[in-house]
Design a protein that fits this description.
Blueprint: H1 9-20, H2 25-32, H3 36-48, E1 52-55, E2 61-64, H4 66-83, H5 86-111, E3 112-115, E4 118-121, H6 127-154, H7 159-173, H8 178-181, H9 187-202
Antiparallel strand pairs: 1-2, 3-4
Amino acid sequence: MTGLPGTGVGPLLLHALRCGGWAGVARLAVAGGLDESTVESELIDLAVAGLVTYMSDGFNVWGLTDAGRAANAERITAELESTGARPAVSAAFERFLVLNPELLDLCAAWQLRPVDGVMTANDHADPSYDARVLGRFADLDRRATVVCAELSAALPRFGRYRVRLSEALDRAGSGELEYLTDGTASYHAVWAELHEDLLATLGIPR
């Protein structure tokens, strides 16, 4: 793709916005493994080029313009075809789809637990229940590691997901329970971004 301003960080940020939606500088820095000053500088360049736009009024987030979305689509299509990675990414996506329903079930199990036969919002007052669900998350994560390794071998930009998933699970296991299903840095949120990335990369409509 021609005409994209800034360094190699620019395309990375466009793609992060494509997969994660509107986001602030801090969240984009985490997604890309970058420092916030670099992210902010690149976003300004992308805004000047008409590829991203800024929403203030208390939101303070950045999002893609139509031109930015088109530029990102052009770039990732070219990347996939030039590297010959489509077969490997497609195969990894099929394995991801096997795990996805299990992940959704685990998120539901974390948010709700049975109390006297009735599903109730999980107030995390039962440590043994939470430990069982965390153990099931850890088991799924071990299998997801294989999928992430296949993806990053095909296209290195996928490697950041493995880091973020591991960090979220580690923090949840250390007592920061919100890192499983709540917030934009949670395991569930990062998993959803990976899912969106696979769809976007392969050109599959949601």
